[in-house]
Amino acid sequence: MDKQQYELEFHLNTSPKVLYPRLSTADGLNEWFADYVKVEDGIYTFRWHSEERFAKLLSAKDLKSVRYHWLDEDDESFFEFRLETTELTDDLALKITDFAEDDELEESKDLWNAQVTDLKRVLGA
């Protein structure tokens, strides 16, 4: 079954300087994304309870975006965090791009919503 790309957008009351490290560093990701995160030789290890997954950093643009690829996925899928500031209001939007199979799409979106709720709690936003 083919995966489809989707994007979620969250408005956060914080700055790119505060948010970006929480999307791009092991310590930052450990605060909200997984129970345990480490980086070794460019490979990120993410652990949730007994599940462990590995991702490679595909690209990072300071204070703008971070893109990862799960190593157990044999396709071109990725998950990406992008920071965009609205010029008129100066609001910060976190845009998350990910891929999911049709029958897992809603569950995947729900998971991201829960993760970002944790992120907001960590940020106090």
Residue share in helix = 25-40%
Structure summary, number of beta strands: 7
CATH architecture: 2-Layer Sandwich
SS class = alpha+beta
Question: Could you tell me the strand content as a percent range?
Answer: 35-45%
Largest sheet: spatial strand order: 1-7-6-5-4-3-2
CATH homology-level superfamily: START domain
- Separation of the first and last Cα atoms: 38 Å
Secondary structure tally, helices: 3
Which overall shape is indicated by the principal axes computed on the Cα atoms?
globular
- How would you characterize the largest beta sheet? 7 strands, antiparallel
Query: How many whole angstroms does the radius of gyration measure?
Result: 14 Å
Unreliable stretches covering 5 or more consecutive residues: none
Count of folded domains: 1
CATH class: Alpha Beta
The CATH topology is: Alpha-D-Glucose-1,6-Bisphosphate, Chain A, domain 4
Mean model confidence by pLDDT: 94
Question: What does the model show?
Answer:
- Helix content is 26%, strand content 44%.
- It is of the alpha+beta class.
- The chain has one domain (14-111): START domain (Alpha-D-Glucose-1,6-Bisphosphate, Chain A, domain 4), CATH 3.30.530.
- The chain has a seven-stranded antiparallel β-sheet.
- The model has no long low-confidence stretch (mean pLDDT 94).
